[in-house]
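hey team, just a heads up i'm posting the complex here instead of the shared drive bc the drive is being weird again. everything in one block, sequence lines first with there labels, then the predicted structure for the whole assembly after. its two chains so it's a bit long, scroll down
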Amino acid sequence: MTHTPVWFMRQAGRSLPEYRAARGSGSILASIAQPDVAAEITLQPVRRYGVDAAILFSDIVVPVHAVGFGVEVEPGRGPVVAQPFRGAGDLARLRPLEPEVDLPYVAETVTLAVGELASFGVPLIGFAGAPFTVASYLVEGGPSRTFARTKSLMHTEPGLWAELLDRLADMSVAFLGAQVAAGAAAVQLFDSWAGCLSPSDYERFVLPTTRRVLAEIGRTGVPTILFGVGTGELLPLMATAGADVVGVDWRVPLHEARRRVGPGCAVQGNLDPALCLAPFDLVAAEARSVLEAAGAEPGHVFNLGHGVLPETDPGILGALVDLVHTEGRAGVSR
Amino acid sequence: MTHTPVWFMRQAGRSLPEYRAARGSGSILASIAQPDVAAEITLQPVRRYGVDAAILFSDIVVPVHAVGFGVEVEPGRGPVVAQPFRGAGDLARLRPLEPEVDLPYVAETVTLAVGELASFGVPLIGFAGAPFTVASYLVEGGPSRTFARTKSLMHTEPGLWAELLDRLADMSVAFLGAQVAAGAAAVQLFDSWAGCLSPSDYERFVLPTTRRVLAEIGRTGVPTILFGVGTGELLPLMATAGADVVGVDWRVPLHEARRRVGPGCAVQGNLDPALCLAPFDLVAAEARSVLEAAGAEPGHVFNLGHGVLPETDPGILGALVDLVHTEGRAGVSR
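-- predicted structure starts here --
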């Protein structure tokens, strides 16, 4: 690949009219469980935007939902948990994931999508939630601004916290393994909320388990991406987690992100998705700044700094892909 | 002062039973408008914790509420705006603040509180919202995760954005000036959500106005503090805004924060308020880490990295003050 590759987190989703048509009004977890629907949604942004990768239409809570922990995804709010994780007794509610039994639809979706993507010459990126971020939903009971219960648990019951993360790590590995076995060519681990932690808490309570997930999935041979929001101070630690690529939000200019992750990792990012609501000349200027900050060396995957916002005009994203393909200077050659 | 000084953001408030008793069930803006109630609440944490400063019981939306923009503070949610700022026509809704007419109760509260604080030998810190953070509420209509409308406005209508910030800056200066005239010995400018911005957006769209507010209030001679959450990448810029002290959250270790702000600014922070929900031995260990990271040189004001969480046990904060007074190595001598 000679240009800078580009795809968008949440490209398969809320901002596309064809997505809303395919999804209908049911729950997102129900749509994910229908391989024909989920594969169609996965393909839509490839057809419309010409992005260089598809990302599986799924959700980070799919595995915990599938083992019956009692998680739903509320529109406009996010994952909510009827009975949050409160103590050792709740570990039993997180039995090992058996992908072929618990979520056969995921491998079916991957197989369908990979088959259709062949004609575009575009790979599929699989994904899972990282143990910390999934744990935060289970412990808080839903989205949180402070992550107070989660932080309290890790500090006051570090043994229980480690057990919780270990179970979630096993689930992430099984979930990602099923996607890779069905044809996913790369995987992204979403540790979306890790940036709420201090570097010392991240290093002590999160990094070891993240490292294990990436090591185990890395053995399959597919490239791995580790992403979180607001992780500026964590980048040097995240760079040691074993991922090939570290995703970065717009808060850290990419030249600085590259300095922090070092030469062993590529970087992915980092246009502010909020700026994609502006007219295209402004988006183009910002995109050029991102490309310039990334520099001429390979090892930059263009993306937003977080997911596409629902109110984004799809025309803007299409023009953005064209701009990156035309003006991006260097590519990662994989 | 020979020890490290300590106070807590939101020390006057939700976690204290005597606060809930004094406040009753009315709106927070109504309580702020009663000088006897507001002064009492301002004093409570000084009596209970022995902190080295009181901070005025107020809210960052008090000035825009007082000029009739139509802002309320919803319990558990935060500021909400009935008719958000949408265009140039809304500038007229932000007439200049006349403190003695629009919010005479603020100076009365300051006068009452300063009188009572004299017997404790403790200064009062006044505060205001910084123009960007107040603008974000007016533009978004309430709390936001993405600040998409605000970012869109600054990029697409930079002239209007500058006018909006200028009006809010004038209000902040007038609001802080009234507090200083009534006896506040220092002021903090809360740019709580500035950390949602990239460094280049912060530098272009926010810093100039912040600098003006700090310059104008600095002329009164009182020390100034500039605070925001998630500002790791912004610290070198914030250090040029003209504040004497830059507040830092727990994401950036204080030795690194000191490096980024340089020798001209003191730092304030940065214990994670979520950790104050843990038993005291854990809180003590974290507080010692903060003191150690701050180092032996003067120029560190101990605080949390953001406001006290409502569920915090006041006993923990009291013990924390004692620990900082006993073990803090250096003080700022002002």
